[in-house]
Design a protein that fits this description.
This protein is of the alpha/beta class. The chain folds into two domains: 58 residues, no CATH class; 222 residues, Pyruvate Kinase, Chain: A, domain 1, CATH 3.40.1380. It has seven helices and five strands. Helix 1 packs antiparallel against helix 7 and helix 6 packs across helix 7.
């Protein structure tokens, strides 16, 4: 059995760990609420922009979904992972799902998040570009990512979706089709040349709006992924805190047992000493 003072030091360390996990749990809970609100606002803004896009009578089916004829003939997979390793097994599950689609000869990978990049490197899977995940607390600038994916004929995005605080799933979307899905409930108006001046031209305006909407759609997935990672981090910290509480109970029980064992040993040593003294005294009296 370990000594009581050693157990006491370990108990203090476990208590510190429990306090830290409680702090991280609170931070993750706050982040979930904050990002969830931003994701809702992002969807509303996309709806508004889509209404303006369809109002100028540009057929989306002939433009933003017609990438197979204008692209470079290759597919790009965009992985949105975490910057840190405290998001559970979500990134690992995402990469395992992506591997089923990945074809080294015709597919390129762009990864957001250092944790995803390290996971790919460990598996020997190459990627052509790496970006840090933009902070969700501020403006999400995805222009460098959009510039990187625009030449491709097919753009698939793998990310983590928030379903509830206790459930997160890996999702795969086609970025262009996702834009269509986000616009299902958008009401259509009409903007004509009779009441509007298109400057510099209608096609150039539509091109810029399409890039903006693609940026918004990608930003939406980043927000969803950040929300799922925050929820997963919350769950991981909750499990860690519960385990730390269990360990504290076990260590305290072990500490009290060790203290009692040490007390019993000292008592036995005292009793043995008394008996020895008595025998010595009896032997001296007989002489």
């Amino acid at each position: 059995m370990r000594r009581a003072n050693v157990i006491e030091k370990d108990t203090a360390s476990i208590g510190t760990l429990k306090d830290l996990t409680n702090v991280f749990e609170s931070l993750a809970s706050t982040q979930v609420a904050k990002v969830k609100n931003r994701a809702t606002l992002s969807k509303q803004f996309f709806q508004l922009l889509w209404e303006r896009y369809t109002a100028i009578r540009v057929d989306p089916k002939k433009r933003i979904t017609n990438r197979e004829e204008t692209g470079n003939g290759r597919k790009v997979l965009v992985l949105i992972s975490a910057e840190a390793g405290l998001s559970g097994d979500l990134d690992q599950r995402m990469i395992e799902s992506m591997q089923q689609e990945y074809a080294r000869g015709s597919t390129d990978i762009i990864v957001l998040g250092s944790h995803g990049a390290s996971q790919l490197t460990q598996r020997g899977i190459p990627y052509i570009r790496f970006f840090q995940v933009p902070e969700s607390d501020s403006y999400i600038n995805v222009n460098p990512v959009i510039e990187a994916v625009l030449p491709y004929s097919s753009i698939a995005v793998y990310y983590e979706e928030y379903l509830s605080l206790g459930q997160q799933e890996v999702r795969r979307i086609d970025l262009v089709t996702h834009m269509q899905d986000l616009s299902k409930n958008a009401e259509e108006g009409v903007i004509t040349a009779d009441d509007t001046i298109f400057e510099p031209s209608l096609d150039e305006i539509a091109d810029q709006m399409e890039i903006t909407m693609m940026s918004l759609a990608l930003s939406q997935t980043i927000l969803e992924s950040g929300l799922a990672q925050a929820a997963s981090r919350f769950n991981a910290m909750t499990v860690a805190e519960d385990r730390a509480s269990e360990l504290l109970g076990e260590y305290r029980l072990e500490y009290h047992r060790a203290k009692r064992s040490e007390s019993d040993r000292r008592l036995r040593e005292v009793l043995v000493g008394i008996k020895k003294k008595r025998r010595e005294a009896a032997a001296a009296g007989n002489k």
